[in-house]
Each structure stands twice: as C-alpha cells, then as structure tokens.
User: Fold this.
Amino acid sequence: MANRNRDARDDRGSAPPDGGESSMAGVIRVATLIGVGVLVAMNAKMITDTGSFKQSVSQLNERIDGVNNRIVALGTEMRNSRAAAPQRGPDPAKVYPIKLDGAPAEGPASAPIVIAEFSDFQ
Amino acid sequence: MWKNLPLSMHQYAAGAAIASMAAHDQGKFWEYHDKLFANQGKLKKEDLVQYARDLKLDVKRFQDAIDTGKFKPAVDADASEADKLGVTGTPAFFVNGHFLSGAQPFDGFAKAINAELTKQGLPIPAGAATAGGL
Assistant:
C-alpha cells in the first residue's frame, strides 16, 4: 500500500517531468513549424514584392516616357505656334472691304489696284 | 493709301499719327510722312511742329489741330477699323482687300498685285513680273 502509494507518488512525481518534456518538444516543433511557415511566407512575399517592385519600376518608366513625350510635344507646339504667329489676324484668302474716305492716298481713285497700309510712325 | 495704326507700345506714335493728319488737312500728308520716317527717333511735339514749319505748312493751324486733338477721331477710326479686321501689328497691307502681313518683300506685293490684275483681265506691265520671279 505504502509501496503502491510511493509508486503512485513516484509515478505522479515522474510523470509531470515526462509530460513537460514532451509538451516542450511539441511547443518547439510547433514553433519551428510556425517559424518555417513565417520564413516561407516572407520569402513568398519577398518574391511577390520583387515582382510588384519590378512592375512599379516599369510603370514609373512608362510614366517618365509619357512625360518626356509630352514635353517634346509641347516644345513642338510652342515652336509651331511661334512660327504660325505672323499668320494670325486677317485671313489672307479673304477679301476685306477697306474704307477709303478721308484717308491720305496717292494715285487716281479709279485705280485697278488699291493698296492700304496700316502703319505707325515710330 | 495710308491708315493710321499707332501701336500703344510706341510712346510717340499716336501724336505723330494725329500730326500727320493735320498735315493731310493742308494737303501735305506724304511729305510729312517722309519727314517722320526720316526722323523716327524725334517725334516729340516740338519736333512735329518743326517738321510742319520745314514743309511750310500753316504752323498756327497745324498746332491748333494738334492741341485740340482735331484729328484724333480720324486716327481712332483707323485704329478701330484695323482692330475689326484683326490687324494687330504694323505694317499691315491690304491689296484690293487681300491681307499681306508685316514688312513684305517685293515678291509678296508683285504676286498679290499681278493676281489682282489677272483677275480683272488687265495686262501685267512688262518688267513687273520678272522681279517677282513669276
């Protein structure tokens, strides 16, 4: 009885350390698994991150190209509008009536060609 | 035919334009015009009066016209006509109503004039065509 008791006590006494070791190992295994899982996940994320990083870079490059093209186009537009500036004003293809009354003129009023000059003296 | 378009950026252009019309009033527009073109750097009021004196205009009448702004309405009418036509710079030429922009080379006029003569069935004067390379 006493023996059994002791055994039982021994069992009780030795059982917890056994159970503790096996649960520690279990915890370590689980932790290791989680760790590995996290590493795998991080790695996978790094791979996708690298992928999206590359994508971002190529998108940025595209946008830079777009901006470059726009600058070139604006430059061309500016040059063209400057070149076209003397063309603004009256349409050379049209005939405009010019008032003759009282304007200083030379030559007969019946002349077939009338040249009007709008000008100033300075 | 002369139309006044004194540009606002030219300080003395408006006074000169009015003075030229005062000379026109005395039948000497083109002589006065030539004077002003020969002296484009000297267009102050005393200069304008001096040119009238040089051309033997009636100086009192000339000066009165300037002082009272007698011909300002005429100059303003020209300028507003130019504005309506869309003319913004000088010189601007119209050959029978066809616009020629800016200081044109001889060719520009030759082409426009010859085109108008042809349109009216008139001969192009000998020598006129060659200079334009037409």
Q: What stands out?
A: Chain B has seven helices and three strands. The CA atoms of residues 9 and 89 of chain B lie 11 Å apart. The radius of gyration of chain B is 18 Å.
